[in-house]
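Board notes (copied after class):
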Amino acid sequence: MAIPEAERETRVRLEADLCVIDRRDYFICGCLDLPIVGTTGVLRFLVWVSLSETNFNRAVELWGTPGREAEPPYFGWLNTRLPGYPETLNLKTHVHTRPVGERPAIELEPTGHPLAVDQREGITPVRARDLVEGMGKGGG
């Protein structure tokens, strides 16, 4: 949903890692990593995930608290389209809080969606390159 620019100041609270729209839609930014097979590397996507108000408020409450990574994961819905994949909006996720200063890790529920399969099984270095090149061209 596009929010008219004239309304953004009153309807949207946006920070680097947190966003609230109309005091009813809550989002957190996290890292969705795809392991690169045969290496120790990952292809990392920064993605937005929608959370319930309760889980969002809990994440904010613990934002600067050492040890917050012991918190159980929060359920969320992926809210970012990723090039090179079929529709990724509203895939089920688990948001794993990490130590203070680190963005949460986003784990997709284990489904047959190609992105979830790639997160579980990894991608080849060639696939990683193709995905990165696709992003540079504005889509996939």
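Comment from the instructor: The mean pLDDT is 94. The chain has four helices and seven strands.
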